[in-house]
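Q: Here's a chain of 431 amino acids. Please give me its 3D structure as tokens.
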Amino acid sequence: MAHYQSMGSIPPKRHTQHRRPAGRGKTGELYYEELMGEEGFSSDSSLLYHRNIPSTIVDAQVWEVGDLSTTPNHPLKPLHLQPHALFPDARTIKATDVVTGRRLLLGNGDVRISYAVAAAPSPWYRNGIGDECVYVERGAARVETVFGAFEVAQGDYIVIPRATTHRWIPKASRKEPLRAYAIEGNSHIAPPKRYLSKYGQFLEHSPYCERDLRPPQGPLLAEDVGEKADAETEVYIKHRGSGPASSGGIVGTVHTLPFHPLDVVGWDGCLYPYVFNVRDYEPITGRVHQPPPAHQVFEGWNFVVCNFVPRKVDYHPLSIPVPYYHSNVDSDEVMFYVEGDYEARKGSGIGQGSISLHPGGHAHGPQPGAAEASIGAEYFDELAVMVDTFRPLDLGEGGLACDDGRYHLSWSGGRGGRGGRGAAGEVHSID
């Protein structure tokens, strides 16, 4: 994000004295300047001014981050995951938070995709491995960060840079708990480069622009949230370590600070969290079917994020609005069906809340009869979030637990043979 922002109290010149207010004739104590920057001082950064020394900790303990093991998708199959089934119990949801309650669906060495349904506040947390892009499927929350706060709700993407200390506070609702789809990169996550000028401004052909992005509301201090500035606080950190190979070497630590993490009196720069709502995405359409890159919203290292929004569809007189069959030679495709009726998947069992995985090496496309049925359609009322990866995805424990076991047979009318996963709801291990 190369869009400069400045909030709160900062000195006129960077790396110079910035002091606390003091009485007449007195000199206040220095604030502590922290550079939060990417790519070793060679890319975007921000300067934050703290009341406390940001390196200070008084304790460090192991955080058991949960089951991050993965199982190969072997034998190779398209899959239908049903993540809503992972959180069926209201009492469990009441005690679950968006950080520690995530269930890993799919992952590889570049990205992990998790799902959580939560009603409890999360601990303070930062991801020391890569940026996070969290999509709010339903519900609402307040997200408090050292840069400021956000009010997030249905349809919001929140992009949180690596090492940003933050917490999630769901808004109480019996009708709709917070449902979050978390995309954790091992890299930075940003708008596609082709949308940006060489100086970082969104270009005219981009489907969204700076006006659509919501920066944090800040600065935000401990007393602003009704908490004590000197309150001892735990911060959960996800980072690389000597964890088991099955977890990708991901481990966790809990640092105890002798003060509240909301101690930033001001900051400026081009690196900060922001929110983008999917309804502000202007779809790119054409006379014939547009390929997935036309729907891209973000990119990371070896993966992209796209969204398919309600839109006018192909208007050539002989067009077939649903996608053609395609073989993902170089990528795995993950589609999260959020709202509406996804025309190409009718008859497959997929509905709102479903996730499909179409792996590289397998040709996929519309269900039988969907192409013919789509002819003459002028508008698709659908909303989906897609992640394409350029390395194969394995199944996490959450993905194994909510695989319907039958989706790979949906193009053949349910006619199946031997091995692999069994009937819907029945999951077998794959060796």
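Q: Can you summarize the key feature?
A: The two ends are 43 Å apart (CA to CA).
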